[in-house]
Amino acid sequence: MRHSPQRAQTTQVLEWETGRRRHVLDDLAGEEPLEIRVNGTPVSVTMRTPGDDFELAAGFLLAEGIVQSGDEIERIAFGRLRDGQQSGNIVDVVLTNASPVDVEQFGRHFVAASSCGVCGRASIAAIYARGLERPAGDATVDPERLCDLPDRLRPAQAVFGKTGGLHAAALFGLDGGLVSVREDIGRHNAVDKIVGDALLKRRLPLADHILLVSGRGGFEIVQKALAAGVPVVASVSAPSSLAVRLAREYGLTLIGFLRGHRFVVYAGEERIRRDAMPADVADRVASR
User: Fold this and answer.
1) Which residues belong to the active site?
2) What is the pLDDT of residues 95-134, one digit of tens each?
């Protein structure tokens, strides 16, 4: 392989602190392009942190409606450049139905920056036209256990601990047990990695799970959660207006500002257990 992308890279920097200057080594989060090809056709170029690239590709294909289950993926491998050299920045996905992929049917060219997943009116219209379904099951969440999740995620963020520069997505069981964690410089990529891992392991739908993201709860995060059948999405920051609208339309529980012993429920409050709340808090939630 000509180039082996790294999750983190070490470089020398100048540190200034209260008038004192010194040269030290610092770890940087990796960021490199990843091209995803399906049956030989390029469908996406995204900036990502290397690692878990096959899962990222699989999660992306599920979120975009190109596949519905892991059984539709025959093989995933690193692709090759024009000179035949294998590249760690190209992933080739071969579907069991090996017919050419019509990129135009998806309404846009799949080119994404690490900070943006789904953009543009054509993208939004395409997602609404996909026929996403409401999360199945009757999952409920204990609010106290929900408040514990960020503290359970933090020690598992290995690369963030070194670089301070990555988003994280984590999958928890309804009992608060940590199932899996993925990190990436792009929050939507981290979610694709989580979902792709579940897809390839034939664990979808994730009807008995909570998805926690370290950044804001944007539209693309909710969309990816719906594609994976996740009933509850929580973030430590704010959701967007479009994310709230999508969550309310599809009956997904969307939580923001999950910090300490406080959170805000923007959609699907029926999944937050009232019997675990003080009576006055439960009454305020029910009256919204």
Assistant:
1) 116
2) 998 666 766 655 444 555 444 555 544 555 666 656 788 9
